[in-house]
Each structure stands twice: as structure tokens, then as C-alpha cells.
Amino acid sequence: MPVTDVTHDLDALTLTITAEFAAPVERIWQVYADPRQLEKVWGPPSYPATVVEHDFTPGGRVNYFMTSPEGEKFAGYWRITAVDEPRSFSFEDGFADMDFTPNPEMPVSTNVYTFTERDGRTRATYVGTYETAEGLQKVLDMGMIEGSRAAINQIDEFIAS
């Protein structure tokens, strides 16, 4: 399984996931830079993602929704803040209604995804920082760790196919 470590720190307001993939950095980068590939791995297997908009440039947005096994749709967005292809990108990640208007009652995280080469493999570090401990706890209670682990663990199989 690609995920090697998951830690959360309510004092530092962070959720950090570390993973290692059996592919070079450039290949892992493409998973995030291509909306059709991102759809295959952004949601956990039981909540597949549909990417509606994908402007992967600073100031751009990625709008998406996930569909539950019962057919319910849950929307979210990224607001891209920095891109250093293929090494890292940063974005604000939030919940939205189905017209992709941010939901102010849900937490927003500031994220930095970093990819480094290690012996032909990629080590990925995903760090999400929340505005409050309550916001971080809310997403933890919603199953963020389990959902993120399930989503990230799909990447090796996807890129091998």
C-alpha cells in the first residue's frame, strides 16, 4: 500500500499523509494535472469523483463532486495557489454546494502536496492545515483519514493499468 504514515496534530492544526509510489515523480504529477486521471483516484473507491472544472494554474479552480453508493453528490473545490511542476502544488480545499459555491459552514484547509524522487519511486507528502482545531476535528470525525488513505492507495494500481 502506498500510504506509509498518517499523522494529525490538533495543536499545529495539520493532517499529514506520507505515501510512496512505484513510479517516477513526473508520472505521479500527471495524476493530479490531468482531470480524467484525477477522477480515478481523488475519491475513495466507494465515492468516485467527477471533475467538472480543472484549471491547474495559480488562481485557477478545480471543481468536483463525489457520488456516494446511494447516489448522493457531495461537491468540493480547490483554489490553486502555487504550482511547481512536477515537484509540488498548493491549494485551498473546501466543501461546496452543487453549483460550487463554497460552503462557509464547513472547514477549509490549505494544502501543500510535495513529490520527491527516491530510487525511481516517488515519495509524496500531503499536508493539510486547518484554520481551527475544531475544523480539523470535524473532518477527522467525517472519516477524512480513512477516505484519504483509500483514495491514495488506489494510485499505484491505477498507474500500473
Give the structure's gist in a few sentences.
Pfam families: AHSA1. With 161 residues, the protein is α+β, with helices and mostly antiparallel strands. The chain has helices at 25-33, 35-41, 133-141, 144-152, 155-160, and strands spanning 3-9, 14-21, 49-54, 61-67, 73-84, 88-96, 109-118, 121-130.
Overall shape: it is globular
How would you spell out the order of helices and strands?
Answer: EEHHEEEEEEHHH
Computed Rg: 15 Å
CATH class: Alpha Beta
Q: What is the CATH T-level topology?
A: Alpha-D-Glucose-1,6-Bisphosphate, Chain A, domain 4
Q: What are the segments in which pLDDT stays under 50 over at least 5 consecutive residues?
A: none
- Tell me the number of helical segments per DSSP (H or I, 4 or more residues long): 5
Query: What proportion of the residues form beta strands (DSSP E)?
Result: 35-45%
Let me know the average pLDDT. Answer: 96
Number of DSSP strand runs: 8
Number of domains: 1
For the terminal residues, how far apart are their CA atoms?
16 Å
> What name goes with the CATH superfamily?
START domain
Helix/strand-derived class? Answer: alpha+beta
Bin the helical content. 10-25%
